[in-house]
Amino acid sequence: MARIIVVTSGKGGVGKTTTSAAIAMGLAKKGHKTAVIDFDVGLRNLDLIMGCERRVVYDFVNVINGEATLNQALIRDKNCNLLYILPASQTRDKDALSQEGVGRVLDELKKDFKYIVCDSPAGIEKGAHLAMYFADDAFVVTNPEVSSVRDSDRMLGILSSKSRRAEQNEEPINEFLLLTRYAPERVKLGEMLSVDDVQDILSLHLLGVIPESKSVLNASNSGTPVILDEKSDAGQAYADIVARYLGEERPHRFIDDKKGFFRNLFGGN
Amino acid sequence: MSTDANETPNTQLALEFKSSTFSVPVLVLLTDDLILFKQQLLNKTKQAPDFFKNSPLVLDLQPLNRLGYDIKIVEVVGIIRQAGLLIVGLRGGSLIQNEQALELHIPIYSSLSEGAISAEDKKQKKATPSSKPDVEIKVDVRVTTLITQPIRSGQRIYAEGDLIIMAQVSAGAEIIAEGNIHVYNTLRGRALAGVQGNVDARIFCFDLQAELISIAGNYKVSEDLDKSVRNKPVQIYLQNQSLIIKDIVQHH
Ligand SMILES: Nc1ncnc2c1ncn2[C@@H]1O[C@H](COP(=O)(O)OP(=O)(O)OP(=O)(O)O)[C@@H](O)[C@H]1O
Ligand SMILES: [Mg+2]
């Protein structure tokens, strides 16, 4: 059975698109045929992160409107032939997506793909609603600060009451916490919430912590998902997350301040 | 009790039976028109999906059986489950209906004795106008509402009776009850008990970090909460129109 994963957050700029690109690539690299869809109509970011912006001919809205077939619009990834990207359109108005249309496209994708990753736009308005509505699993991307945590909480409320699964009284969406842009040394200084703080507030299953990392910017500049940078901390963190999602057990990393730890160990400061 | 003599005695107690009383909503079926029943039930549950979701329920068929209507349990149960409610018992069923229910693993509850019923009926006639609608689905909601999922920011729960929440209540969430409120987890949002003026209502919570607490309109906001009552199990009640917050466990 195909599974639809929504990558969502409420708050903007927390790392949804970075995460969508990384986990879609990670799932495909593990041998699962995966599609990643950009729901951010009007902004179009995913194709940049995936490095396929110059190959966009048709987009999600064209498919919904019947102006192109799904096969015409899907772009095969240059690094992995099990990964396909369905880009968002840049010019159209935000109402171009309809629930019925999105449902139709997802149904068609489900026939052919194992995982369908939906990159949600920020906010809790229509676009974000459509991105999560059909989901089976939700990756709730949160930064370790109060407003992001609050917005994630809000989004969790929406997932549990306004999704298709909620409306049809089916088993609820599986919700996972992804804590991104985590900087242990800033947690220590009290400038950021800790993993424990966030889990205490959200009480949600932690799928993984992604450290704040230069490698993310480098990856997006070169148009390759950061998970392909296997030496980078963020890349490894995303690989862990994909493995855990697929059922592997892996210890959590990137939570402690290594430097601080040694400093404490040797009594210096 | 028969125990195997050869078995080595194990002193560890593995289970215990206890007697306990629960309030459960009763769904009284007033028609044998199951299409109409389904329509109205789904409408009702749609109005308050959070409230009805997985709510336990006892089905009462007594009025219908009195009128001599025969209803297939399987069909009614199917509709109830479709509406997302969990049927935990049958009352007032015929012998055949009881059998059908047991086949579906639904327990049978005995109805009130005949005498008790007529007494009840008399009482009710005094209290309510005699002109009753022909079809009415009565979900008695003045009972306890049990919620096991977290109440998130932006969500609101309203209970006409007592409200029990087994999960956390987030900041930005609102829980409202005409009766008492129990939160067996952290209360960070707003909790309003006795909202129809019940000054005897109380709020119990496992960990008080609320944004607002109110009983029958008398409220305190977060800033009014003394450090000594925060982050621990407390009960909140009204005395001479002021809110008292006390440890649940009284130390003597
Ligand atoms: N782990 C990280 N370390 C450093 N920078 C990061 C990390 N994750 C994301 N960023 C940066 O944060 C910015 C926002 O990331 P991204 O576009 O993925 O967020 P988003 O949630 O999709 O935003 P929007 O809500 O606008 O769609 C980008 O500049 C990205 O490079
Ligand atoms: Mg984005």
Architecture overview:
The complex is a heterodimer of chains A (269) and B (252). Chain A has 269 residues and is an alpha/beta fold. Chain A contains 13 helices and 8 strands. Chain A has helices at 16-29, 46-49, 60-64, 70-73, 99-112, 126-133, 146-162, 164-167, 184-188, 195-202, 214-222, 233-245, 258-265, and strands at 3-8, 34-38, 75-76, 83-86, 115-119, 137-142, 174-182, 205-211. Chain A has an 8-stranded mixed β-sheet with strand order 3-4-2-5-1-6-7-8, sandwiched between helices. In chain A, α1 crosses α12. Chain B has 252 residues and is α/β, with parallel strands linked by helices. Helices cover 22% and strands 27% of the residues of chain B. Chain B is built from 6 helices and 16 strands. Chain B has helices at 34-47, 49-52, 62-66, 73-82, 95-103, 114-127, and strands at 26-28, 56-60, 86-91, 108-109, 138-139, 145-147, 156-159, 163-165, 174-177, 181-187, 190-193, 203-208, 212-215, 218-221, 234-239, 242-247. In chain B, strands 6-8-10-12-15-16 form a 6-stranded mixed β-sheet, with no helix packed on it. In chain B, strands 4-3-2-1-5 form a 5-stranded mixed β-sheet. The longest helix of chain B is centred in the first third of the chain and has 14 residues, at 34-47. The model of chain B is unreliable at 1-5 and 112-141 (pLDDT under 50). The interface between A and B is medium-sized, with 15 and 21 residues. Residues 16-17, 40, 45, 119 of chain A line the site of magnesium ion (MG). Magnesium ion binds next to α1 of chain A.
